[in-house]
């Protein structure tokens, strides 16, 4: 289901206003409208940092963004992935207000304790519809990482699950997970 252009434009205005609040909430636009997220916990933040460092070391020809808007106005979606990888040669062609999802090589989400359905259900559908070729879900609660590939517009045709401690193969990267923190 898509959100019409006028509704998306209004939701985007509201999202921009909300993100200016003193508590700086992360605001996304999903199928049902606005989605507000609380600040990440320490294990969540550390996991994102550890993964970002590995991605950057293995792909000097790409940039790894954190907490940056990515939107598909035609679908009426705006997401703020924990990490997204964009080839360096496409940086200058990006719109000013958000990254174009069609240019993104990989999106990484660290599962939130407070709203895991957002990463496991809603974002799978949205990232697939946006054409994101690789989606990595890292879950500090379960101690797993899931690599999703072959988007079909509603989900991903291929999923591979790894336990923490196993090297995770995702596209051109091989990520170590043994030192990733867990939720208590």
From TrEMBL:
Residues 16-170 form the Putative restriction endonuclease domain. Signal peptide: none annotated. InterPro entries: Nuclease_put_TT1808, Restrct_endonuc-II-like, Uma2. It comes from the Bacteria. This is Putative restriction endonuclease domain-containing protein. It comes from Kitasatospora cystarginea.
């Amino acid at each position: 289901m898509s959100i019409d252009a006028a509704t998306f434009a209004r939701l985007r205005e509201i999202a921009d206003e909300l993100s200016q609040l003193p508590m700086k909430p992360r605001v996304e636009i999903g199928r049902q409208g606005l989605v507000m997220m609380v600040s990440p916990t320490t294990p969540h933040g550390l996991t994102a940092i550890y993964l970002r460092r590995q991605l950057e070391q293995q792909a000097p020809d790409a940039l790894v963004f954190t907490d940056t808007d990515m939107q598909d106005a035609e679908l009426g979606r705006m997401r703020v992935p924990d990490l997204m990888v964009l080839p360096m040669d496409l940086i200058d062609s990006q719109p000013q207000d958000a990254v174009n999802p069609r240019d993104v090589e990989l999106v990484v989400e660290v599962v939130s304790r407070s709203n895991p359905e957002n990463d496991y259900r809603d974002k799978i559908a949205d990232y697939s519809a946006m054409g994101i070729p690789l989606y990595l879900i890292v879950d500090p609660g379960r101690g797993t990482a899931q690599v999703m590939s072959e988007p079909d517009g509603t989900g991903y045709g291929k999923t591979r699950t790894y336990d923490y401690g196993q090297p995770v193969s995702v596209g051109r990267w091989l990520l170590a997970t043994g030192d990733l923190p867990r939720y208590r």
